[in-house]
Design goal:
By secondary structure, this protein is mostly helical. It contains 5 helices and no strands. Helices cover about 75% and strands about 0% of the residues. Helix 1 runs antiparallel to helix 2, helix 1 runs parallel beside helix 4 and helix 4 runs antiparallel to helix 5. The radius of gyration is 17 Å and the shape is elongated. Bound molecules: protoporphyrin IX containing FE.
């Protein structure tokens, strides 16, 4: 399984859940959990989709096990962070350790992604199938 093929459907899943959360907030006229909705959408949908785009543009990275691990950790930690933040803003402090621990996973995973980006930084690097037009 490629990292991008994993990231895209998981990102869409987060987008659907985040939007459903937004609709639920609107219908109930209770916006107290908006930080959780925002984090699920921005980490789970937008960031994960962008990571998928990077991997799709860098086929060598896309095929690596490390990239797949990075994507899966990002998805799981984003969902758990949103749950933790949602609990906190609903007045349930059980969410605090969940949010604290998952935030550390997320920053470590972003550092890992940064390292993968640096290693594979050149646009189209590793793409044998699509040579640059100037080449
Ligand atoms: C069906 C789609 C969506 C609905 C119904 C919805 C609904 C809402 C609602 C009701 C709020 C609270 C507003 C407030 O109390 O000030 C909110 C806030 C927010 N939403 Fe959404 N949302 C949707 C999709 C998205 C998406 C796709 C994103 C990001 C990619 C997003 C990002 C945010 C952010 C960042 C906030 C916080 C804004 C602030 O603090 O001022 N939302 N949304």
């Amino acid at each position: 399984m490629k990292a991008s093929s994993t990231a895209f459907p998981l990102a869409v899943l987060c987008g659907i859940a985040g939007m459903a959360w937004g609709i639920a907030m609107s219908m109930s006229q209770d916006h107290s959990t908006l930080p959780a909705h925002a984090h699920l959408n921005l980490l789970g949908w937008v960031s994960l989709f962008l990571m998928g785009v990077f991997y799709r543009l860098h086929p060598v990275a896309d095929r690596s096990r490390l990239a797949l691990v990075q994507v899966i950790v990002w998805f799981v930690a984003s969902v758990l962070l949103a749950i933790g933040v949602g609990l906190i803003y609903s007045g349930n402090m059980a969410g605090e350790p969940i949010a604290a621990i998952t935030s550390l996973f997320l920053i470590a995973d972003m550092l890992l992604f940064g390292w993968i980006v640096l290693k594979n930084g050149r646009a189209g690097a590793g793409s044998a199938a699509m040579p640059h037009p100037a080449e």
